[in-house]
What does this fold into?
Amino acid sequence: MTGFCPAVSANGARRSYPASALLFLTAPTDVRLARLRRRETAIFGVDAIGPGGARHKEYEAFIEWATAYDDNTAIGRSRPGHETWLSRLPCPVIRLDGSEPIDILVEKVVAVG
It folds into this structure.
């Protein structure tokens, strides 16, 4: 049965989520960064994000920020900030490792009900 998971989000916004649990998907830093690099290349193209490209500075700044997410040196969102937010939620938090195959992740979510 779905209820509501009232919370203050990591950015301070008050929300009430219709949920019986919250899924928190993580991945090791190297996996996450490799995925981000592939995504940025697919979206903007290697010419745009490579040296001399129109988005090179933005891309480098984004990757630098994303690298700092886990160790709390990032400005804005960070893993420690999200962990603090998660610890305050009144609903269960289901943690998933995003480096696992998608079919395994789906099985885990379905098993939660």
Q: What stands out?
A: The mean pLDDT is 85. Helices lie at 29-44, 46-49, 56-68, 79-87, 102-112.
